Amino acid sequence: LWEVMLSYYRTMDWHEKYDHGESPSSSDGNNILDTEETNFDRSYKRSDYCLNKVNAPILTNTTLNVIRLVGKYMQMMNILKPIAFDVIHFMSQLFDYYMYAIYTFFGRNNTFESTGLGLSSSRLRTTLNRIQESLIDLDVSSDVAGTLTAVEERKEKVPMPHLSHLVVLTSSNSLYGLAERVVATESLVFLAEQFEFLQSHLDAVMPPAKKPFLQQFYSQTVSTASELRKPIYWIVAAKAIDYEQMLLLMANMKWDVKEIMSQHNIYVDSLLKEFEQFNKRMNEVSKRVRIPLPVSNILWEHCIRLANRTIVEGYANVKKCSNEGRALMQLDFQQFLMKLEKLTDIRPIPDKEFVETYIKAYYLTENDMERWIKEHREYSTKQLTNLVNVCLGSHINKKAKQKLLAAIDDLDRPKR
């Protein structure tokens, strides 16, 4: 805990000097130490971890308050060992509430699960549901009258967290509160890392009969904290690029062309401009709050994945398509990939195969298509149906077409 606090003070001192145009040195942190800590500081500076603006932890006052409380709890356990389990239970509730608050403020969205991208694991959903049921009082305005058991249960619960009205998550200029999302989410990840450091200490004081509780807390809650990154940053990615506009542009393209085209369609340029603008806005946000590489990677992965899935959805809206039109689809996508790879270092490009496999399916024969449909459940019913209607519609008889559509319907039935 001392190391965590030392990191915090060094970070603040570094940023204060940086903001005033001074050149912070690695020894600036010495001023905050008492002489009795000099040896610790020397060994700390010899370590591989060098604190600077690139790798300084992203923290909030709340994070530090929780860590401070954890320190007090651990002191209590050292003095009052018989109540160690109760103390650790309260520590776990602190972490639970922190995690649930971050999810409530920045990650709760009813639309991302419908994308089929698996943004939140079943383990994460189970953890959040458990916290809500066991810790959150969802009906604080109701009458307190009720059974004694109900009253006692409510005493163990706390009110729903509420986000400050000063935090704006709807502005495109701020990338929908990206700075606030980064600070909140990464502070939670940092807090989870500190809890990981403490696991052996907590395990040492936990009564043997209660150790399964501690193991479950770490395996189902602490270890899932970083998983909140995906749904939280997906909300930014889903709004940062105008995917609907791209669909409209694709709908206006002509795909039943009669000759091989050498020029890609304009919707590709429009999409690339959206990505360039997204890159610029993210750079602007990074001037306010450092965006760690894992966060930047997740944002890019989300945007690219959503763009590629939108491309497939656009192709699935095509009513008429010639062989030359299919070649044009390939040309468009290759142009998009070539330009995109200059904007990001993400490799491999997310869902690249998702688009390429769909385009190649236009060239399948009737027998190959039936087998292909059964092997590729990742595509929607609409996308598969389009392949049958547009790709094979004019080349097969009605009975064969109905057979393929029936195969698609069989795949869709378990989803209903």
TrEMBL record:
In terms of InterPro entries, this protein maps to:
Syndetin_C (IPR019514), VPS50 (IPR040047)
Q: What is any Pfam family matched here?
A: Syndetin_C
Domain called Syndetin C-terminal: residue spans: 175-409
> Annotated Gene Ontology MF terms?
SNARE binding
List the GO biological process terms. Answer: endocytic recycling; retrograde transport, endosome to Golgi
This entry carries the following GO cellular component terms, namely: cytosol; EARP complex
> Per its UniProt record, what PANTHER family does this chain match?
SYNDETIN
This chain's protein is named VPS50 subunit of EARP/GARPII complex
Organism per entry: Laticauda laticaudata
